[in-house]
């Protein structure tokens, strides 16, 4: 994980500030779109869900290389599987042992930092890490003694996708976001990760 972050920063610095320094353009704008995602975990429901997202972006671009960072807010949801109460019974409140398909909702702030490579006249392929902080966790069914003892409040993902420039300072992005961190914060040996398919539209200010 640390090697991915260091490699991305080094590549961005080398490409932007050595090869493209004289051709850089500043990009600032707002962005919105939708994320379709699912959670991976033995005791979790793996159904796909969709939520909107919104935020801002800031970046630089040269003739062939770009570097863009975004700040995106979105809602996500995690639903437990049929055996969650049995496996994680040490983290369940008294009297809640029989609940099935309990739901947890999260408000997340994600910051992707992406290096882009121009492949076609209006198309850039992008890759890099995404850092996510969960700013609010809601245990809707109140089944856990403490939600932060079960679910970590931050995680790291890898992003790959494309950005297409359009007229009127618009651009469209399509991305696949693969979770790298284990989001399970308990002592039980089960790995929780999340994958996202994301479509967004940005408008330059």
Describe what you observe in this structure:
By secondary structure, this protein is mainly β. It has a single domain (2-204), classed as Porin, CATH 2.40.160.20. Helices cover 11% and strands 56% of the residues. It has two helices and eight strands; from the N terminus they run αβββαβββββ. The chain has an eight-stranded antiparallel barrel. Strand 2 (49-61) and strand 3 form a beta hairpin. The radius of gyration is 19 Å and the shape is elongated. The chain starts with a helix and ends with a strand. The model is unreliable at 14-18 (pLDDT under 50).
Spell out the key features of this protein.
205 residues, 56% strand, single chain, 2 helices, eight-stranded antiparallel β-barrel, Porin, mainly beta
Residues in helix, %:
10-25%
As residue ranges, the low-confidence spans are: 14-18
Mean pLDDT across residues: 89
Main beta sheet strand tally, sense and closure: 8 strands, antiparallel, barrel
The CATH class name reads Mainly Beta
How do the helices and strands follow one another from N- to C-terminus?
Answer: HEEEHEEEEE
Rg (C-alpha, Å): 19 Å
Total helices: the number is 2
**What structural category arises from helix and sheet content?**
mainly beta
The CATH architecture would be Beta Barrel
Q: Sum up the overall morphology in one term.
A: elongated
For the largest sheet, list the strands in their spatial order: 1-2-3-4-5-6-7-8
Strand fraction equals over 45%
Which topology does CATH recognise? Porin
Q: Please give the domain count.
A: 1
**Record field, number of beta strands:** 8
Head-to-tail CA distance between termini: 33 Å
């Amino acid at each position: 994980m640390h090697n991915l972050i260091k490699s991305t920063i080094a590549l961005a610095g080398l490409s932007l500030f050595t090869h493209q320094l004289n051709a850089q353009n500043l990009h600032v704008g707002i962005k919105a779109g939708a994320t379709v995602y699912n959670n991976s975990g033995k005791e979790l429901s793996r159904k796909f869900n969709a939520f909107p997202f919104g935020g801002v972006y800031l970046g630089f671009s040269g003739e062939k290389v770009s570097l863009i960072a975004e700040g995106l807010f979105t809602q996500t949801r995690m639903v437990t599987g049929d055996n969650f109460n049995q496996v994680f019974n040490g983290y369940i409140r008294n009297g809640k042992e029989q609940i099935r398909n309990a739901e947890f909702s999260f408000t997340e702030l994600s910051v992707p930092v992406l290096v882009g490579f121009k492949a076609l006249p209006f198309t850039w392929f992008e890759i890099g890490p995404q850092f996510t902080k969960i700013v609010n966790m809601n245990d809707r069914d109140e089944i856990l003694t403490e939600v932060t003892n079960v679910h970590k409040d931050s995680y790291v993902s890898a992003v790959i996708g494309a950005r297409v420039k359009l007229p009127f300072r618009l651009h469209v992005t399509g991305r696949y976001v693969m979770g790298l961190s284990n989001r399970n914060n308990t002592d039980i040996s089960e790995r929780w990760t999340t994958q996202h398919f994301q479509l967004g539209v940005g408008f330059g200010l």
